[in-house]
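Much of what follows relies on a compact textual record of a protein's fold. Think of the row as the fold of the chain written in a discrete alphabet. An example makes this concrete, so a full record is given next.


***
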Amino acid sequence: MHLEDNGVFTPQLVQTMRQPHGYLMGAGIWGLGAILYAPTGNGDVVFGR
């Protein structure tokens, strides 16, 4: 199961959700249409729909 006892997503699920499902023209694509817009200076990403 992907939920903690209190109903919160497990850290492993959150990490998996942050991985792109594929790439189009070099941009990461996530499920339901979210697309990577820009990497941040600390190795994170800013994304939107």
Observations:
- DSSP finds one helix and four strands in the chain.
